Each structure stands twice: as C-alpha cells, then as structure tokens.
Amino acid sequence: MSPCKSWTPLADGLAIGCPECGAEAQFAFAAARRIARKADRPFFEASRDFEVKRVFWHGYYDIAVHYPGLARPLRDIGDLPEGYRKTGWRRAWRLGPEMPVDAGAAVCLSCGARRKHALHWPQDAFLTIEHKGHVLWAMDRPALAALIEYIEAEDRKAARRGPFQGFLMKIPSVFLTAGARAPVAAKLRKLMLRDAA
C-alpha cells in the first residue's frame, strides 16, 4: 500500500512494532507549538514535559515539542505560561520543514519501553500481511477489524462506509480479487489474534 501521507493524516495510537522487543507498541505523533516570547523559553527548557527546538522556516524561531506517552498529557499540565493553552498544539511537522515529519513517541505494551521514535510508515506497521509479494497493513486493531469485514464482504461499497472509508478505498486490487478473498481474510484473522493486548 501507499505511504500514510498520500491518502489521509494518520491518527495517534498507531500499532507499530516495538523498536526494543518487536511486540506491539502504540505510536503517538509529537505535538508542538511556536514559543511566542523569548521570556517563555526558560519555562519550556526547564520542564520535563517539553523539548525546545530551534527551527528555520521563514526565519529562525523556537518551538516547544511535547511527546505523548513520555510526558504528562497536555490536559494535565496546569502551569503553562500566560497565553499558552492546553489545546491548539499541532503535529510537529506542521511547524516547519526542519522538524521530522513523523516524530513521535512509542510506548510498548509488552516490555514497557518508552522512547522517542521517528515513524517509518508502513515499514514500522505491526499489523501487516503479505500476499503475492504485496504488503497490506492496518493502522490499528479497529482498522484491522474494518479491513477484515471489507475483504469478506459481498457488497464492498456498503462495507466500506464508516470512519475507515478513506483507508478502505485505497486497498490495492491484488487483495480484493475473488481468488484472494479467502487467503487474505484468513491471514488478517490470524493477525487479529497475534499478541492481542
């Protein structure tokens, strides 16, 4: 399948292979915000919940980066400087070309590892199968359940309606042929049971 950004922005909570042990881990994209005043920079530098980066995009400026799963949730941080809200933070890559496009954090459900991670999608996807030399992936277990239902459906137009429609409409035809239906569905069902958390 095509890389993630070619069809829709991915949500947080992606199922990836743990960089430490290979089991299922959850990935969440880093959130960032431009530091509006130089006087606010020391707060973000001293905080254990943020990392300060200097980026260049139409001039140099500082941004505060928050890695979900490695720090307190933004909603629980009550001492932000004046003018900064707990909402309104954006994915880090939207704040300039120097930020890694897929910067975030991985939290392993098995070994407990927590670390920064640069996502390489779909190579990092945990929920993948191979069929006739092609790789099919799902973002998470709910997407995998929708994918199974879609592959097995007699009427695929009706089956793809819902929150995963954009994803299901981009499934390559090699997985959708009549001859592929049974083997692909069987592989996906087996995958659903793999290391289920």
General description of the model:
This protein has 197 residues and is an alpha+beta fold. The chain has helices spanning 41-46, 141-152, 156-159, 165-168, 178-193; strands at residues 14-17, 24-29, 31-34, 51-56, 60-66, 90-91, 103-108, 114-118, 127-131, 134-138. The strands form three sheets. It has a four-stranded antiparallel β-sheet, with no helix packed on it. A four-stranded antiparallel β-sheet has the order 4-5-3-6. Helix 2 (141-152) runs antiparallel to helix 5.
Number of strands: 10
The number of helices is: 5
**Uncertain stretches:** 1-8
Q: Which structural category do the helix and sheet elements fall into?
A: alpha+beta
Shape, per Cα inertia axes? elongated
Sheet-strand content, in percent, reads: 25-35%
Distance linking N and C termini:
25 Å
State the domain count. 2
Helix content: 10-25%
Q: What quaternary form is this? A: single chain
**What number is the mean pLDDT?**
86
- Rounded to the nearest angstrom, the radius of gyration is 20 Å
What's the story with the biggest beta sheet?
4 strands, antiparallel
Order of helices and strands: EEEHEEEEEEEHHHH
Tell me the strand order in the biggest sheet: 1-2-7-8
